[in-house]
Each structure stands twice: as structure tokens, then as C-alpha cells.
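Thread: quick sanity check before group meeting

JM: Hey all, I'm pulling together slides for Thursday and realized we never actually wrote out the predicted structure for the chain we discussed last week. Dropping the sequence here so it's in one place. If anyone has concerns about the input, flag it before I start.
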Amino acid sequence: MRRTKTVVALAATVLLALTGCDTTKNKAGEIVSSATAAVASAAQEKMNEVKDGVNATGDVRAGATSTDGDRTVAEITATNPKDKTADYTIMVTFRDADGNLLDAVVLNIDGVEPGKSKTGTARSNRTLSGATKAEITQALRH
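JM (edit): ok, ran it. Output follows.
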């Protein structure tokens, strides 16, 4: 994750330093896109670390996004339909109004009792601008 944060910080620095012509703007966009892809890849790697998890995307829903300081947040709710307490590992993506990937995070919601719901907050890794939507990309119950 440290590598991902470094890539995102570098991309933000380059983006702030660049101004002017279309070529420069295009290059800056490519850098940010590459950094976003790296964040999504790191999130997927984190999901791959979960052993013995079962697909539980249907158990999880994302609420509307809002801001908390300089970050975008969304309340995520996991509802456990099983007969024993479960933990959830959830990949949440933040997308803009056009569906473009802006950020990806992994959230754990632990100790969800049978037949009950529990919430957690997905928080973006960086400042996101414009209208955003949180989506559940993957959810594992374990």
C-alpha cells in the first residue's frame, strides 16, 4: 500500500506542477489514470489475501457518498443471512458521473451476527472532485 500511496502522491505532484498546453494536460491525465489503476490493483491484491471467503456481494450495499474533510466517504452495510457470525472484506470503488474509476478501497466489517446488519465507512485514499458514487465491486464473507 505504501507503493500505491507513493504513486498517487507523485501523480498529484506532477499534476499540480504541470500547466498549459494540451499535450501537458494529456500527460497529466495519463499519470493520474495510471496511479488510479495502481490503487485498484493494490485493492484487488488485498482482496486476494482473503482465504476461504465466499462471494457475498448480495449481502452488502453502498450508501450515498458525502465528504468528510478532504475525502469522499460512503456508508457500507453488510447483512449476514447465515446462522453464524461472519466477517466481511469488501472492495468499494468510487466512480464519477460518467462511470470512470476514481479510487478503490478495501473495507473490513467484522463480527456481523446472524440475521443482523453492521455498517462501516469506506473512505477514499485521496481527494475526489465532482459527483461520485460508491459501488461494491467485490465482497467476501468469511
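AS: nice. The beta strands are 54-55, 60-68, 71-79, 86-96, 101-112, 117-123, 132-141. The chain has two helices and seven strands.
JM: adding both to the slides.
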